[in-house]
Amino acid sequence: MSENKNQSVTMVGALPPLKGNAYYCMSLSREMSKHIVTEFISFKRLYPEFLYPGGVEDDDPNFRVDQQPMLKIHRIISYFNPITWIRAAWIAQSRVVHLQWWSLPLAPIYLVILIGLKLRKKKILFTVHNVVPHEKSILDRWLTKIVLAFGDAYIVHSRDNQRNLAETCKIPEANIHVVHMPIHDMYVRSGEDSASIRRRLGLPEKGKVLLSFGNIRPYKGLDLLIEAMPEVLRAAPDAHLLVAGQNWGKWDDPYGQLIQSLEIDRSVTALLDYIPMSQVADIFQVADVVVLPYKYFDAQSGVGNIALAFEIPMVVTRVGGLADLVDDDRVVCPPEDAQALAQAIIPTLLDDQFRSKLKFDASRLKSRYSWSAAISQTMKIYQQLS
Asked: If you write DSSP's letter for every residue of 144-181 in order, what string do you get?
């Protein structure tokens, strides 16, 4: 690149068709390249699929990102080829290198890249999506500290994450910047009416729909939502739970068996597959309330940001940055408490005025969590590091 390197940035992460945090990286690189020259060094192949049961690639033709006048993309990093790790560090052009940190299996690759970048006297900015992984292991904190020690500055998506990162890695809070995750607004509705979508998805014609969306993993607390459903159904008998996403383990144990034992199978529809980008908007169109009943969490929720984009009310647990997605404590409940979860859900189904208020809250938060605000904050950090 011939442009002034003080007005450019090199990013490292995953772009489509890979998954990981590719939605976020795709939007970040596109939006940043509207302002400064942006170079993105992307993984070409991620880790083996046995480490990521939900699959590592997306074959959705709508899930793509291409070169643009101010956006240069290098798809070169392979989990299986250490030479590509060295090359990634070698080709980075900008003074500031902005890395996305989200998955512990990437630690060996990042360490090689980071050593190369530091030898070239680059300034390192991390966006830390997870301070520690969702599924914890003995090596978590140790490896995370080693990788993040290379950073000169850090971005997290909530105040809670800022505190956790400072405590876990002994990083001064002054070096950790809170930039709220912008809304995921790339999803476009198909134009199909809600009644038709409900029929296609196998949902009943009437009744409020609770949505649990995304990869089904133990920390997300779907079992707690299922346990809460009998109490919800006693108050709102026509309520229906829609589960949409790939399962990382066995559905029958525990979820299917739990649904049958509670005798609520007629009130639950499970779409146990990856939802292509082109179908996401239809799923959210028929949802009245999105539920995020996470048991533990150290990040911000992409699902919650999609719900904000569509101004759909949410019920969340008080973990990670989930409470930042709502503006009413009545829809925030303690984790791992099915009864409290049910009590938070019920008013959102029965009280139309309350649900309208939550939609209004979502519209205000949606404007606050814009890409323009995030880009402005991030560019200021680049300038401080340059």
From this structure: HHHHHTT-SEEEESSHHHHHHHHHHHT--GGGEEE-PP
The structural domains of the chain, with segments of one domain joined by +, span 5-182+370-385, 194-368
Burial annotation 52-75 (CB, 10 A radius, 16+ → b, else e): beeebebebeebebeeeebbbbbe
Task: Name the CATH architecture for the domain at 5-182+370-385.
Answer: 3-Layer(aba) Sandwich (3.40)
Lookup result for tokens 């291409």: 66
Among 225, 203, 211, residue whose Cα is nearest residue 310: 211
Phi, psi of 71 (to 5 degrees): -130, 115
pLDDT tens string, the chain, 386 residues long: the values are 334 445 899 999 999 888 768 888 999 999 999 999 999 999 988 766 655 555 555 555 555 666 678 999 999 999 889 999 999 999 999 999 999 998 888 899 999 999 999 999 999 999 998 887 655 666 777 888 999 999 999 999 988 889 989 998 999 999 999 999 898 877 888 889 999 999 999 999 999 999 999 989 999 999 999 999 999 999 999 999 999 998 888 898 899 999 999 999 999 999 998 888 888 999 999 999 999 999 988 778 889 999 999 999 999 999 988 999 999 999 999 999 999 999 999 999 999 999 999 999 999 998 888 899 999 999 999 999 98
CA distances from 358 to 51, 100, 312, 322 (A): 38, 32, 8, 15
Class at the top of the CATH hierarchy for domain 194-368: alpha beta
Whole-angstrom Cα distance, residue 325 to residue 308? 8
Q: From residue 9, give the alpha-carbon distance in Å to each of 76, 122, 285, 348.
A: 18, 11, 37, 44
Does residue 48 have a cis peptide bond before it, meaning omega lies within 30 degrees of 0?
A: no
35 CB-near residues (< 8 Å, 6+ apart): 375, 379
Task: Please name the amino acid found at residue 258.
Answer: L
Q: Pairing mode, if any, of strands 240-244 and 209-213?
A: parallel
Q: Classify residue 375 as left (phi > 0), alpha (psi -120 to 50) or beta.
A: alpha
| Fold agreement between 5-182+370-385 and 194-368 | yes
For 176, phi then psi, to 5°, come to -110, 115
CA–CA distance, 114 with 96 (Å, rounded to integer): 12
